[in-house]
């Protein structure tokens, strides 16, 4: 089976493409960056695409590349491509390309971090950080500072803690519609999810142990049934079918959700579900057209803690019920030495 995987210059696209090849799929590695290491490392199976913002030119280039490669399935792995493709499902189908995306409304809601926060603030089941208007902070600036981030975009670009009013004003000068929120200090987590729209979502939670530019470079899975149930409820509430990555903090008074990405997270290589993997199940459903998980899959999960250390060469992955702590530490030291 052949398929096109986009965004392979990013962590999530790379992980999906690599996992697909390990499972026996023939992959066309696609990206918009001509210097993308994934394209340079796979010259015989690489495809340079226009940016999704180029609209029809992007769609035509994608369709042409898929035909030439003999692929009929596309896995979208960047926020910009997911936003565009969600509104072009009919056009993609007419071009003979199978994809698996949520509705345009769901994608818009999850792509706009301010709208996402507003939506959750109206639902008593889910908690989101307190948001502020800039004018409210003129006379009363929080002692802990405020956390600011752009309304859209991935990788935490230009996200930071502003400890003084002057810092906030400088940040707002270049991000006039940015989001201002309280500073959270609990354990940060990501949860890779797969939801068919009918079966209960598969959820694999990860601690974000080290973060660079908003992306997890050291992550470790953990099991928390109450958290997994809450994340599954959020994915179902938002109707995020296909892959997604929910992020938040484990605060002393409960779970606080910060965003939901409508794609796998950059650390999804660690998302094992017992003897299978979320990416494995996603690819099987994407390429077969089926939208039901194998019967009994939820009841067959044997949890194994997995540590993923991503260094510039990409990743070191350990999996097992009792991981080798010394190996994990060696991996952490290797990551430190690559700074």
How do you describe this structure in short?
This protein has eleven helices and 17 strands.
Features:
339 residues; alpha+beta; four-stranded parallel sheet; 17 strands; disordered C terminus
Write the layout of secondary structure elements.
Blueprint: E1 2-5, H1 11-22, E2 26-31, H2 37-41, E3 46-48, H3 56-69, E4 73-75, H4 79-86, H5 89-94, H6 104-111, H7 113-121, E5 131-132, E6 146-149, E7 160-162, H8 165-174, E8 179-182, E9 187-195, E10 202-212, E11 215-222, H9 225-238, E12 242-251, E13 254-261, E14 272-273, E15 276-277, H10 278-288, E16 306-311, E17 314-319, H11 325-337
Parallel strand pairs: 1-2, 1-4, 2-3
Antiparallel strand pairs: 5-8, 6-7, 6-8, 9-10, 9-12, 10-11, 11-16, 12-13, 14-15, 16-17
Helix pairs in contact: 4-6
Written description of the protein model:
- The chain is of the alpha+beta class.
- The chain is 32% helix and 27% strand.
- The chain is globular.
- The relative contact order is 0.12.
Q: What portion of residues is helical?
A: 25-40%
Q: Give the structural class.
A: alpha+beta
* Low-confidence regions: 312-318, 320-339
Q: What's the average pLDDT?
A: 89
Distance between the termini: 39 Å
The oligomerization state is single chain
SS elements, strand count: 17
Which series of helices and strands comes N to C? EHEHEHEHHHHEEEHEEEEHEEEEHEEH
Provide the β-strand percentage band: 25-35%
């Amino acid at each position: 089976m052949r398929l096109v995987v986009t965004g392979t210059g990013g962590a999530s696209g790379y992980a999906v493409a690599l996992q697909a090849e390990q499972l026996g799929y023939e992959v066309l590695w696609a990206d918009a960056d001509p210097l993308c290491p994934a394209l340079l490392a796979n010259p015989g199976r690489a495809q340079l695409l226009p940016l999704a913002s180029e609209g029809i030119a992007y769609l035509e280039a994608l369709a042409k590349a898929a035909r030439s490669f003999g692929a009929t399935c596309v896995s979208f792995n960047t926020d910009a491509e997911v936003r565009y493709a969600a509104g072009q499902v009919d056009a993609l189908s007419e071009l003979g390309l199978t994809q698996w995306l949520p509705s345009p409304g769901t994608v818009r809601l999850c792509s706009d971090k301010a709208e996402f926060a507003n939506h959750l603030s109206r639902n008593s089941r889910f908690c989101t950080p307190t948001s502020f208007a800039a004018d409210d902070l003129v006379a009363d600036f929080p002692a802990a500072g405020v956390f600011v981030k752009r309304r859209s975009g991935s990788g935490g670009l230009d996200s930071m803690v502003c400890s003084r009013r002057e810092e906030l004003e400088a940040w707002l000068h270049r991000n006039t519609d940015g989001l201002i929120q309280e500073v959270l200090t609990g354990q940060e987590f990501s949860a890779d999810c797969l939801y068919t729209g009918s079966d209960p979502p598969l959820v694999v939670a990860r601690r974000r142990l080290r973060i660079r530019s908003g992306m997890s470079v050291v992550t470790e899975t953990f099991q928390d049934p109450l958290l997994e149930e809450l994340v599954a409820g959020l994915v179902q509430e938002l109707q995020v079918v296909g892959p997604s990555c929910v992020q938040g903090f484990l605060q002393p008074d409960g779970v606080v959700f910060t965003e939901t990405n409508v794609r796998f997270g950059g650390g999804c290589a660690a998302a094992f579900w017992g003897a299978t993997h979320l990416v494995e199940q996603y690819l099987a459903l994407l390429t077969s057209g089926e939208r039901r998980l194998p019967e009994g899959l939820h009841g067959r999960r044997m949890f194994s803690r997995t540590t993923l250390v991503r260094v510039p060469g990409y990743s070191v992955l350990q999996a097992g019920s009792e991981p080798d702590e010394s190996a994990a530490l060696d991996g952490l030291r290797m990551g430190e030495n690559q700074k």
